[in-house]
Amino acid sequence: MEQIFSYGTLRSKEIQMQVFNKLLTGKADQLTAYKLKDLKIEEEFGMTDYFVAVPSENPADCIKGTVFTISNEDLTKADQFESNAYKRVRITLKSGTIAWIYIES
Fold first, then answer.
1. Which Pfam families did the record assign (predicted)?
2. Vertex 14: Cα angle to 44 and 37 (nearest 5)
3. Which of 3, 7, 23, 77 could make a disulfide contact with 65, Cβ separation 3.0–4.6 Å?
4. What are the tens digits of pLDDT across the range 37-79?
5. Which residues contact 91 (CB under 8 A, 6 or more apart)?
6. What is the pLDDT of residue 40?
7. What is the gyration radius of the CA atoms in the chain, in angstroms?
């Protein structure tokens, strides 16, 4: 099993059903020394606004989100769902949990 930290769309029940065909159970957590940056991604009907995590020079900056436990198969599905504007990396959350996160590529 893998841990994945979501600060955006993967927290949506609708998106979870679309991507994983099930609802995920998660716990609130935070990622310190990161901040959110606006990101425009071209989709089928034009440009859409999203956010992307980027490292911050300020250790007090943090991103609130949810950490989910998922299977390796679900991690592959998440990779397919995320745009190539993101890359998946391992981080350590404020709780000490080591998880995957999608950040700016």
1. GGACT
2. 60
3. 7
4. 876 655 544 445 667 888 999 999 999 999 999 999 999 999 9
5. 5, 31, 34, 98, 99, 100, 101
6. 61
7. 13
For residue 44, give the amino acid letter: E
The C-alpha atoms of residue 92 and residue 34 are separated, in whole angstroms, by: 11
How many Å apart are CA 71 and CA 49, to the nearest integer? Answer: 29
Tokens 């590529």 appear where?
105
Cα–Cα distances (Å) from 97 to 2, 22, 29, 67, in that order, read: 11, 23, 9, 9
Query: What average pLDDT is seen over the chain?
Result: 88
Residue 48 structural domain: 2-104
Q: Are 103 and 90 in contact (CB under 8 A)?
A: no
Alpha carbon 9 to its chain's center: 8
CATH number of the domain where residue 64 is located? 3.10.490.10
